[in-house]
Design goal:
This protein is an alpha+beta fold. It has helices spanning about 15-20, 40-45, 65-75, 90-115, 125-145, 160-170, 175-180, 185-195, 195-205, and strands at about 1-5, 25-30, 55, 60-65. It folds into 2 domains: about 1-80, Glutaredoxin; about 90-195, Up-down Bundle (Glutathione S-transferase Yfyf (Class Pi), Chain A, domain 2). It binds glutathione. Glutathione (GSH) binds next to α3 and α4.
Length: about 210
Amino acid sequence: MYTLYCRNTAGSMAPEALLAACGAEYRVIVLERKPDGSFHDFFLKLNPKAEVPTLVLPDDSVMTESAAMMIHIADLHPQAGLAPAIGAPERARFLRWQVYLATTLYMSDLRLFYPQRYTSRPAESEGIKEKAAEMMLSEFGIYAEALGEGPFLLGSRMSAADIYAAMLCTWSPDMKALFAQHPALARMYDAVLENKAVRAVWERNGA
Ligand SMILES: N[C@@H](CCC(=O)N[C@@H](CS)C(=O)NCC(=O)O)C(=O)O
């Protein structure tokens, strides 16, 4: 059984949806902070960065880093067909864009929502936020281009990377405008949300 520490609608939503789509046995623990805002010691021991998602695997080892989780979980459940196998021709494309999403869009989102964490000079926060919003749009544009006709990254076959990209879309400050600008993202998002397991996780998260 997997244990996923999460916060609703945060970076844990994609690994949660992937676990569900794979039919894996898992439980989610929605993380609560202590009244003073700090984290409980047990969680800091699991993840010194105190971030979600944090995943405890069935063998009790701990995993952090959402992109690594998406790849690992999908690999462990080949019957779900949510990652091309090692050596398959589409594997490189899948890895490339899964890692792209985590290292560009996810990071821009964090700067947009928590600009004060990226500077020691509070007066700079607005500038960090503005630049992050600009970068997100350009990074989404590059991804939309990569999707082509899609609807998924790998054409007609959904993969873990699509679930992750759909999560990132929900963090866009204006999803409607984003989809109007990039119909490929809208097509991908709607196609991902057609998956019943994914939709149920979106609903549990209140997304
Ligand atoms: N590189 C990490 C980033 C995880 C991350 O930044 N998570 C955010 C939520 S989306 C978090 O828990 N931040 C700590 C906080 O908000 O206190 C990953 O991909 O898993």
